[in-house]
């Protein structure tokens, strides 16, 4: 998958760096562009996904024996009997290169870290367009994707998604006791499948 950062993605990276949107610094923008370019030398984007049945209960949903307590996810999937689970990562080398960059030059390290955060989101969005959407059956539509840590969906759900998808064995994605994903630049998500009415 070829990747070229758009102006929006550069803006997103600057936002991750907490640069006010009113600030326009050509040198800083070039630093971000260079970071995106450098990032492509060592990213290994991978994603695993699957389609699963949902059981609804008051205040959450159950997927493959995992109980996800969240009013947000219950509302998101209220018209869904099934969902997709996804887990994606940029790979361990990204974490290592960010750490090296931060030790050499803090600004370069910040830019690389921000670009990696934007890159993993862009990767999973494109993966959904190219792989998940074409797999839908006639009369089905995806909800927005929703990740653990958003709203009231606990970070504990990360471990459930990784386990259900066997993501540790398949793409090397795991979760620490403090509920940090390893590699860090990774995403897990739930997407409901709604039946459209005719």
Features:
3-stranded antiparallel sheet; NADH Oxidase; 9 strands; 198 residues; alpha+beta; single chain
In short:
This protein is of the alpha+beta class and 198 residues long. The chain has helices at residues 7-16, 26-39, 71-76, 92-104, 106-132, 157-165, 167-171, and strands spanning 46-53, 55-57, 60-63, 66-69, 80-89, 140-146, 174-175, 181-182, 186-195.
Read across the widest sheet, the strand sequence of neighbours is 1-5-9-6
Helix content: 40-55%
- Total count of helical runs of at least 4 residues: 7
Number of strand segments: 9
The CATH topology corresponds to: NADH Oxidase
Low-confidence stretches: none
Order of helices and strands: HHEEEEHEHHEHHEEE
- Global outline: globular
Q: Which secondary-structure class do the elements indicate? A: alpha+beta
Cα end-to-end separation = 36 Å
Q: Specify the CATH class.
A: Alpha Beta
What is the second-level CATH architecture? 3-Layer(aba) Sandwich
Assembly state: single chain
Rg on CA atoms, Å:
18 Å
Mean pLDDT: 94
Biggest β-sheet: count, sense, barrel? 4 strands, antiparallel
Number of domains: 1
Strand content: 25-35%
């Amino acid at each position: 998958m070829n990747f070229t950062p758009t102006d929006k993605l550069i803006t997103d990276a600057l936002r991750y760096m907490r640069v006010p949107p009113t600030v326009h610094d050509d040198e800083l923008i070039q630093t971000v562009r260079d970071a995106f370019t450098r990032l492509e030398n060592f990213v290994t984007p991978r994603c695993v996904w699957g389609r699963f049945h949902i059981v609804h209960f008051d205040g959450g949903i159950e997927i493959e024996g995992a109980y996800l307590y969240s009013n947000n996810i219950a509302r998101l999937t209220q018209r869904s009997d099934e969902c997709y689970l996804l887990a994606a990562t940029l790979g361990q080398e990204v974490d290592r290169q960010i750490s090296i960059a931060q030790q050499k030059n803090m600004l370069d390290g910040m830019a690389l870290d921000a670009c990696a955060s934007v890159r993993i989101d862009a990767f999973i969005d494109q993966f959904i367009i190219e792989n998940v959407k074409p797999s839908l059956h006639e009369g089905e539509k995806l909800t927005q994707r929703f990740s653990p840590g958003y709203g009231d969906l606990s970070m504990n759900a990360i471990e459930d998604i990784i386990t259900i998808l066997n993501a540790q064995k398949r793409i090397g994605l795991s979760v620490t006791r403090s509920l940090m994903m390893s590699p860090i630049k990774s995403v897990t998500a739930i997407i409901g499948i709604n039946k459209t009415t005719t």
